[in-house]
Amino acid sequence: MPRPKKDEPEDEPMGSASQDEDETDGEEEQKDYPVEKIYGRRQKKGARPGVWEYHVRWEGFPPDEDTWEPKENLTGSEDLMRKLDEEMDAKIAEKKAASANKSAKRSRQSDVREAETPTSKKARSASTNGKTYSKRSKSRQSSPERQDDEDEDEDEDMDKPKTNDSASATSTEPAKIVSMPEKYKKLPSWENFISKVETVESEVDGELYVFFTTKDGDNVREPCSLCRKKFPNKLFDFYEKHLKWHNHDTVDA
């Protein structure tokens, strides 16, 4: 491929007639120089976008002899030009993608900041006769004496033992009353299974019922007629504790 004439070493004039004729005619043969590498490109002046000039390193010449050449001067170096174009186009596409990602990231950050920033509220005021009135806050500033009283109340509240609400609710629930479990009903005596006789009450039908607690923690209700047979001693102890005894003084005649 031809190398620019300005970079070629000048031949010494031979003074021959043939050379004089060639110089007179302005014809000079151009030599082809091998390309070592192509390592850059630029937009060709006056040409449409995408028409390039390539930075060429000539084989056998130092770097200061590198030149910018149009595509038509690099016949035979199409592979080198195509490789450079692919590398440069890939770099341009990568830069565009990075710039687009950066812009999108800034846009998302801006949206987040706008969402987190509360909308400022303008103070409302009414103007009458040149005077401006603004709404007064409902909160009152406590006086030093009132603040001391409040602090004392807080200290007293902290000293008070906290009650377990769930435990209180459980303790106020009425105990469930059941019949004697089946496993005890066939036994001849319940004396060893009764913890305490709570009360004896008369129902609407006139029959007496005994309310008692078993050692298993069950609250049981059974007819008094059955209880007299199953645990007479426990029942007698209950009557003995709840009967009122009267002492009568005897007077000698």
TrEMBL record:
<feature type="compositionally biased region" description="Polar residues">
    <location>
        <begin position="164"/>
        <end position="173"/>
    </location>
</feature>
<dbReference type="InterPro" id="IPR051219">
    <property type="entry name" value="Heterochromatin_chromo-domain"/>
</dbReference>
<dbReference type="GO" id="GO:0000792">
    <property type="term" value="C:heterochromatin"/>
</dbReference>
<dbReference type="GO" id="GO:0006338">
    <property type="term" value="P:chromatin remodeling"/>
</dbReference>
<feature type="compositionally biased region" description="Acidic residues">
    <location>
        <begin position="147"/>
        <end position="158"/>
    </location>
</feature>
<dbReference type="InterPro" id="IPR023779">
    <property type="entry name" value="Chromodomain_CS"/>
</dbReference>
<dbReference type="GO" id="GO:0005634">
    <property type="term" value="C:nucleus"/>
</dbReference>
<dbReference type="InterPro" id="IPR016197">
    <property type="entry name" value="Chromo-like_dom_sf"/>
</dbReference>
<dbReference type="InterPro" id="IPR023780">
    <property type="entry name" value="Chromo_domain"/>
</dbReference>
<protein>
    <recommendedName>
        <fullName>Chromo domain-containing protein</fullName>
    </recommendedName>
</protein>
<dbReference type="InterPro" id="IPR008251">
    <property type="entry name" value="Chromo_shadow_dom"/>
</dbReference>
<feature type="region of interest" description="Disordered">
    <location>
        <begin position="1"/>
        <end position="182"/>
    </location>
</feature>
<feature type="compositionally biased region" description="Acidic residues">
    <location>
        <begin position="9"/>
        <end position="30"/>
    </location>
</feature>
<feature type="domain" description="Chromo">
    <location>
        <begin position="33"/>
        <end position="96"/>
    </location>
</feature>
<dbReference type="Pfam" id="PF00385">
    <property type="entry name" value="Chromo"/>
</dbReference>
<dbReference type="Pfam" id="PF01393">
    <property type="entry name" value="Chromo_shadow"/>
</dbReference>
<feature type="compositionally biased region" description="Basic and acidic residues">
    <location>
        <begin position="79"/>
        <end position="97"/>
    </location>
</feature>
<feature type="compositionally biased region" description="Polar residues">
    <location>
        <begin position="117"/>
        <end position="132"/>
    </location>
</feature>
<dbReference type="InterPro" id="IPR000953">
    <property type="entry name" value="Chromo/chromo_shadow_dom"/>
</dbReference>
<keyword id="KW-0539">Nucleus</keyword>
